[in-house]
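Example record

The entry below shows one chain as it appears in the dataset: sequence first, then structure tokens.
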Amino acid sequence: MSTGWNPQVIVLNGGSSSGKSSIARALQEILPGIWLTFGVDTFIDALPGGGESPRAGITFEPGGRIAFSAEHRALERSWYTGLGAMARAGAHVILDEVLLSGDAGQERIRSTFGEVDLIWVGVRCVPDVVASREAQRLDRVEGMARQQALSVHAGVVYDLEVDTTYRSTDDCARDLASQLSLDAMPR
């Protein structure tokens, strides 16, 4: 099956602990060419205090909700604009994202990437499973994964979707490569 896709950017959107980062790393190993992986964690790590400083413009609220200052949103737009420039210059990019505002986040990315060919991939996992994964990770705010499991997909339109609830991230990456009709490298 030929989709005619020639993506410059693959956007993986899913909640915390859904397996996006593992899928991104697996895709880097099986897709033809060299793909760079960036995402929300890369951006947050570059902020003051790795995102934990009040100067980062992020507020972690009870129950796993997250709020952002206007200054943070302006810097986020600069981040996406820079990634878009890299893609326009020829880099292949995998974005590992958590679109907390669902379709509004999708529109923010679309508007900053402009004419760059984006492929949107929903990475789903049921709330109970992501909550269990979150509990095993020391770097997560309790309740965040469960809260995001469904909300990050609200109104987002995808080209492809995978579900990591009962499937390995490697299998999901191979399925994505196949559906994109990109010749995957043997593993």
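Notes for this example: The chain is about 40% helix and 20% strand. Confidence is low (pLDDT under 50) at residues 183-187.
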